[in-house]
């Protein structure tokens, strides 16, 4: 969390396209993400018209990315650290078995960046570029995967969440807008502002994305939490609320953190080792999957999932998200 807050602090008042220092290490990480974007472009979704849930082509991308990443990391990190760092990066694309994505996977990308700092690959001088260049490019990759492969939202709160998939672009994006002369929290309701500034500020970019995939015209209907937040007096208040909310709704949630991995770089004292994580969620139940003619599991169908492992709804890109009961938020 300390690392996330330092990243958050580094982008206050800055636009995505601001002139910033980009070190050779950051350039290498950007090159890695470019290679993954190219790989995604080479793996189109398969014909999946009968289901609104995850496209099985995601499994092909996931396996190819997992194969490529150790080689792509060789110019960036020491060889003996590659297996550990690769695990965080591969996990940041979503879950191969369930074909879903959520804030826990997003947190794994931050863990990947934190490992780079612990290894001395990046330093505090790289924080701004890590957010405005690297994290923004990671977001571009994930939006491509979400649109193309219809990733299910992992643990989405439906309309009572910020976004079906992400949290951190709202935190970093609100930091970018602190003390902006003209754009206020309520400005998210102005289509002209969204159109003009969505490429410069992550928060507004997320609003543009949500508006593009939801079926109704008003945030009040499809994203009431964001609508409520827009009544905050300042972006500083929004940003402080986002930090509190991230601690409570992501890092403090067992359904998310029970799947988080620890090793020599990010350590945790206690707990126990879980084997064969890829065979399931580690719990005494099974997910519903579809099988092909050879009996091979190809993708999660989204039937009833236990609460710890997601909820049975397709992405908003494929269908309208489901609503849940309202909860208090730290933005009043």
Offer a few descriptive terms.
single chain, 332 residues, mainly alpha, Four Helix Bundle (Hemerythrin (Met), subunit A), two-stranded parallel ribbon, two-stranded antiparallel ribbon, 3% strand
What's this entry about, in short?
By secondary structure, the chain is mainly alpha-helical. It has 13 helices and 4 strands.
Describe this structure in words.
This is Serine/threonine-protein phosphatase 2A activator. Pfam families: PTPA. The structure is a single chain. By secondary structure, the chain is mainly alpha-helical. The chain has one domain (2-257): Four Helix Bundle (Hemerythrin (Met), subunit A) (Up-down Bundle). Helices cover 46% and strands 3% of the residues. The protein has 13 helices and four strands. It has helices spanning 2-10, 24-41, 57-73, 82-91, 103-118, 127-149, 168-176, 191-197, 202-213, 219-222, 224-229, 235-251, 254-257, and strands at 100-101, 152-153, 289-291, 297-300. It has a two-stranded parallel ribbon. The chain has a two-stranded antiparallel ribbon with strand order 3-4. A hairpin with a 5-residue loop joins strand 3 and strand 4 (297-300). Helix 1 (2-10) crosses helix 6 (127-149) and helix 8 packs across helix 9. The radius of gyration is 19 Å and the shape is globular. Mean pLDDT is 82; it is low at 277-292, 297-314 and 319-329.
Poorly predicted tracts of residues: 277-292, 297-314, 319-329
CATH superfamily: Phosphotyrosyl phosphate activator, C-terminal lid domain
Number of domains: 1
Write out the strand line-up for the largest beta sheet, numbering strands in chain order.
Answer: 1-2
Subcellular location: Cytoplasm
Family: Belongs to the PTPA-type PPIase family.
Function: PPIases accelerate the folding of proteins. It catalyzes the cis-trans isomerization of proline imidic peptide bonds in oligopeptides.
Organism: Umbelopsis ramanniana AG
């Amino acid at each position: 969390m300390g690392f996330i807050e330092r990243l958050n602090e580094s982008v206050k008042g800055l636009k995505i396209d601001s002139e910033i220092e980009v070190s050779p290490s950051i350039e290498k990480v950007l090159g890695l993400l470019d290679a993954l974007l190219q790989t995604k472009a080479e793996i189109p979704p398969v014909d999946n018209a009968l289901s609104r849930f995850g496209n099985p082509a995601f499994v092909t991308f996931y396996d190819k990315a997992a194969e490529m990443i150790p080689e792509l990391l060789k110019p960036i990190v020491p060889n003996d650290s590659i297996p550990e760092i690769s695990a965080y990066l591969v996990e940041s694309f979503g879950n191969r078995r369930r074909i879903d994505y959520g804030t826990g996977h997003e947190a794994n990308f931050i863990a990947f960046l934190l490992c780079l700092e612990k290894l001395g690959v990046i330093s505090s001088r790289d924080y701004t570029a890590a957010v405005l260049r690297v994290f923004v490019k990671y977001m571009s990759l994930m939006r491509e995967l979400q649109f193309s492969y219809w990733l299910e939202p992992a643990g989405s709160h439906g309309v009572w969440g910020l976004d079906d998939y992400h949290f951190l672009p709202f935190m970093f994006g609100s930091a970018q807008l602190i003390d902006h002369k003209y754009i206020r929290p309520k400005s998210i309701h102005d289509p002209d502002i969204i159109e003009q500034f969505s490429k410069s500020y992550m928060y507004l970019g997320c609003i543009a994305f949500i508006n593009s995939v939801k079926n109704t015209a008003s945030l009040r209907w499809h994203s009431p939490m964001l609508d409520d937040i827009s009544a905050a007096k300042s972006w500083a208040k929004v940003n402080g609320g986002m930090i509190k909310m991230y601690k409570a709704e992501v890092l403090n949630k067992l359904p998310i953190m029970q799947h988080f991995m620890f090793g020599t770089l990010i350590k945790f004292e206690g707990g126990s080792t879980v084997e064969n994580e890829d065979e399931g969620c580690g719990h005494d139940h099974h997910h519903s999957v579809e099988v092909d003619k050879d009996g091979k599991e190809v993708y999660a169908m989204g039937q009833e999932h236990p609460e710890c492992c997601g909820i049975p709804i397709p992405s908003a890109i494929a269908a309208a998200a489901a609503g849940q009961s309202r909860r208090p938020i730290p933005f009043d």
